[in-house]
Design a protein that fits this description.
The chain has 394 residues and is α+β, with helices and mostly antiparallel strands. It has 4 domains: 4-18 and 168-315, Molybdenum Cofactor Biosythetic Enzyme, Chain A; 23-40 and 138-167, Molybdopterin biosynthesis moea protein, domain 2 (Alpha-Beta Complex), CATH 3.90.105; 48-130, Molybdopterin biosynthesis moeA protein, domain 3 (Beta Complex), CATH 2.170.190.11; 326-393, Beta-clip. The protein is built from 7 helices and 28 strands. The protein has a 6-stranded mixed β-sheet, with no helix packed on it. Strands 18-15-19-23-22-20 form a 6-stranded mixed β-sheet, with helices on both faces. Strands 21, 24, 25, 26, 27 and 28 form a 6-stranded mixed β-sheet that branches. α1 (4-14) crosses α6 and α3 packs parallel to α6 (297-315). The longest helix is centred in the last third of the chain and has 19 residues, at 297-315. The protein is elongated. The two termini are 26 Å apart. 38% of the residues are buried. The model has no long low-confidence stretch (mean pLDDT 96). Bound molecules: ligand LQZAQKY5 and molybdate ion (MOO). Residues 176, 178, 180-181, 193, 195-198, 241-247, 250, 272, 274-275, 294-297, 299, 361 line the site of ligand LQZAQKY5. Its EC number is 2.10.1.1. Pfam families: MoCF_biosynth (PF00994), MoeA_C (PF03454), MoeA_N (PF03453). Catalyzes the insertion of molybdate into adenylated molybdopterin with the concomitant release of AMP. It catalyses: adenylyl-molybdopterin + molybdate = Mo-molybdopterin + AMP + H(+). Belongs to the MoeA family.
């Protein structure tokens, strides 16, 4: 058995970062930008007003001062003239500040009669002018690689980029294995259960920018597994679920091996998720990276968060790093941990973390309630309430 850290390193060694493609901005959220972007112009391109009010010369803006309004500057339509002493220009938020003006007085600080405005006492400090380029300057670089969040898409739009170069999406083939499985919506026999983790993992992988594809369920026969692996030949990553342990019907490792899979490791010192395996499929089957997940539904999902998520990020050109941990106080004590890294399902509230009493790796209802996996390193001593512990947000 190898450690979680060693398993992650071995997985990263199997990743071959994918090529790139250009997508319209509307499709860019959640993708990994792979080429630097340079701003074509300053933003804002002119000194602009931050408020609705009147543009004047700053030194003249004193309580009770009076000005004659000589025109208007609106967003998209500037005032072309110059503001001279004793003059003001009506101005709106986002409008270019006219030449000569160095301050905007809020309209709340003004009384107006016809073309004459009088400033109130007191006045706020001002100047309510955003300098040109305060957001970004022409030539500023937005650096890749970067996972594009909605705010990043907004910034790229502001930089006048209608398209962006992103990583190709990793194609992931998901193979469930087991005679007991039926698909959701089918009519299960008395000894059958419904395949669940396939769908949980597909959903998780989509949030990670991948293009997962659920293949037909492979039965516990060599022929069925072989044909599933053949169907997965065009994938970048083949993920099997179940059949990874030591039972007579756990055939995934054997069949993949017979098809030329070069195994990188089998079994990780973690709980749940111990019977994890990884390797590279034979060249005949496309040479894709392969991860064999344990069948227990919680084990498969935990391995998805701990291993598949960082792997899918690395495929898309992001740094090869473990899934980022957060920290929060523990609300109820935990016993000392055993020899395996334990990912404990926990309720996450604003006050902190509370591990669920049952950590049985078959119980999805508890995973669904959990907002966190508390990470307990091998042989961690008992933890008291109030201790700050690391966790994986899920
Ligand atoms: N003698 C030993 N037995 C087991 C060991 C061991 O070390 N020695 N390890 C246990 C651990 S830990 C795990 S985890 C399981 C994993 O076994 P497999 O990967 O071979 O998984 P299966 O036996 O195929 O299935 C386990 C369990 O999960 C259900 N399952 C499978 N696929 C799905 C799916 N797509 N959706 C929902 N549920 C699924 C399956 O019906 C079983 O109930 O092995 C322990 N045994
Ligand atoms: O590792 Mo198994 O995944 O403990 O249930």
């Amino acid at each position: 058995m190898i450690s979680v850290e060693a398993a992650l390193d071995a997985l990263f060694a199997l990743v071959r970062p994918l090529g790139t493609e250009e997508v319209p901005l509307r499709e860019a959220a959640g993708r990994v930008m792979r080429a630097d972007v340079h701003a074509f112009r300053d933003q804002p391109p002119f000194p602009g007003s931050a408020m609705d009010g009147y543009a004047v010369i700053a030194e003249e803006a004193q309580p009770h001062a009076m000005f004659r309004v000589i025109g208007e500057s609106a967003a998209g339509r500037r005032f072309e003239g110059q503001v001279k002493p004793g003059q003001a220009v009506r101005i709106f938020t986002g409008a270019p500040v006219p030449e000569g003006a160095t301050r905007v007085v809020l309209q709340e600080d003004v009384t107006r009669t016809g073309d004459i405005i009088t400033l109130t006492d007191p006045l706020d400090a001002g100047p309510h002018i955003r300098p040109a380029g305060v957001d970004f300057r022409q030539g500023d670089t937005f650096t890749a690689p970067r996972l594009l969040r909605p705010a990043d898409v907004a910034l790229l739009a502001a930089m006048n980029q209608p398209k962006v170069t992103v990583s190709r999406q990793p194609k992931v083939a998901l193979i469930s294995t087991g005679d007991e499985l039926v698909l959701p919506g089918e009519d299960p026999g008395p000894d059958q259960i419904v395949a669940s983790n396939t769908f949980g993992l597909e959903a998780l992988f989509r949030t990670l920018g991948a293009r997962p594809r659920i293949l037909p369920i492979a039965r516990d026969t060599r022929a069925s597994l072989e044909s599933a692996f053949h169907l997965a030949a065009d994938a970048d990553l083949v993920v099997t679920i179940g059949g990874a342990s030591v039972g007579d019907h756990d055939l995934v490792g054997q069949v993949a091996g017979d098809l030329g899979m070069e195994q990188s490791f089998y079994k990780v010192a973690m709980r749940p998720g111990k019977p994890l395996m990884a390797g590279r499929m034979g060249a005949d089957l496309g040479g894709a990276m392969m991860i064999g997940l344990p069948g227990n539904p919680v084990s498969a999902m935990v391995c998805g968060h701990v291993f598949a998520a960082p792997v899918l990020r690395a495929f898309q050109g992001l740094p090869a790093e473990p899934a980022p941990l957060a920290h929060a106080p523990l609300l109820a004590p935990l016993p000392a941990n055993g020899p395996r890294m334990h990912y404990m399902r926990a309720r996450l509230s604003p006050e902190g973390l509370r591990a669920f009493d049952s950590q049985d790796s078959s119980i999805l209802s508890i995973l669904s309630e959990a907002g966190a996996l508390i990470q307990r390193p091998p042989h961690a001593p008992a933890a008291e309430a109030g201790e700050i512990l690391p966790y994986l947000p899920i």
